[in-house]
Amino acid sequence: MLRYANPKRFMDLSGAALPWLAGAAAIFLVAGFYLGFAAPPDYQQGDTVKIMFVHVPAAWVAMMAYGLMALSAAVGLIYRHPLADAAAKAAAPLGALFTALALVTGSLWGKPMWGAWWVWDGRLTSFLILLLIYLGYIALWNAIEDETRAARATAILALVGAVNLPIIEFSVRWWTTLHQGESILRPGGPSISAVFLWPLFAMALGYTLLFFSLWIVRIRTEILERRARSLMLGLS
Amino acid sequence: MTALFFRDIRLSFRAGGGAMLALAFFASVAALVPLGIGPDLKLLARIAGGVLWIAAALSALLSLDRLFQADFEDGSLDLIALAPQSLEVAAATKIAAHWLTTGLPLTVLSPLLGLLFGLPPQAYPALVLSLLLGTPAISAIGAVGASLTLSIRRGGLILPLIVLPLLSPAVIFGAGAVLAVLDGLSNGALGLLAAFSLVAVVLAPFACAAGVRLNLAG
Lengths: 236, 218
Known about the structure:
The complex is a heterodimer. Chain A is an all-alpha fold. Chain A is built from 6 helices and no strands. Chain A has one domain. Helices cover 81% and strands 0% of the residues of chain A. About 2% of the residues of chain A have low confidence. In chain B, helix 3 crosses helix 8, helix 6 runs antiparallel to helix 7 and helix 6 packs across helix 10. At the A-B interface, helix 4 and helix 5 of A face helix 7, helix 8, helix 9 and helix 10 of B.
């Protein structure tokens, strides 16, 4: 793996792969949207069930983004590799964006289904905390001027968060059962039939590919920015 | 390390130290809540556990940003890092001193504030016990945040942003323990809180030491 971690080689490889990734993301997203709109309305939820196709994959990608960010942070902390630092830094705003997307679409779905924009449901609450953790991580990156020091500090924060997130998830679930019991409708109904599964699958793939495309773009930008900065330092 | 321990305790009680300020802040937040909510004792008794827990978390944060920063600025942190004892032990010592000067006084004061909230007598043991078990976690996780932000000039602003979301399990279990007694339920909140606190106290010194090291290396 370290063979590909050379920034130059990464730039060549990612530059070649990016159009394919982005193209595949576009194809799957278009297909997902088409299948999603073509899907019949649910017998209970009507057309609002289609919010699921934009909501559920966003939540999946938001969680995956944290995992990838923490993994990059750990690699950066252990091997002191600037590419891993850049990858962790680039993943955070994307993760925050997908978390926010999941929260907003969830809220739009919750209004017709539960009759409220917001309920203190376990998943909603833990995603709100996930968003706050992302924002804290980004704020810490921006607050420390020294690049390598910021990378180390945020990596530790990302790992502490990675240890704590399952505990938060558990505590929030424990908390909602204490307060509300089983009054909350489970979104998605009792089971998902194939008509809904295919668009969901296509959208999940599309979102994931979109995340990877954007991630690569951001890492490339980060590397170019660093190069530009060192060039400027060389000139002055 | 005992010298470091007693030095930190002495410093926090001297002028400019955070111990008494944190305690006063705790009391004033708790006093302000009924002014905002209204004097309905029934409602206040229900929210007492949650309010006191949030006030405890906030007031501990108040003194946390100076936990490593003051030592960093006057250079004593470099000496601590050079000492034969490992930095992990030093971090654990500082966490213990911080807890003893903020978490413990808050816990002692909490029954008095519970009284102001009209908390029924049977809930006091749960309130005091939950704070006693949970405030070490606040000091420990807060210290990790303090070590990461120690070189930032306005670290006090960013510290709550990164620490408060990580503290949510402590607040949930701590306030939940008090609420469970009010509802006459038995649940494992105190046990879960103790487990969370234990994990935090054991792991935090390592993260703290790593945070201090990266800031000294520059």
